[in-house]
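Following up on my earlier thread - several people asked me to post the actual chain instead of describing it. Fair enough. Here it is, all 94 residues.
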Amino acid sequence: MNDETAVFLLLIGFWSLLAIVMFQRFWTIRRLRNKVEKLTHDAIRNAAAQVAPKQVPESEDLIRISKRLQVLERIAVEKENSLTREIEDLRAAG
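Reply from S.P.:
Thanks for posting it. Predicted structure:
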């Protein structure tokens, strides 16, 4: 075997080894990522199952919240109003 053949075989071996290592690394990363996503999905599902159902607010609370929401919407839409009047409207609604 001459020197050129030995160098050629070493280069082929090096690139083959590099290809195998890269494939295993990416395959492992993909497999680990899938496991993490599955664990996260399961944890979220378990946490959602443990959460107690939310209580519906009382009618008075719902009315008060809707009034405050209307005032906040008006504040966001009407920029020419004075800040003092808007704060007083919020206090009156609450």
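DSSP finds three helices and no strands in the chain. That should answer part of your original question.
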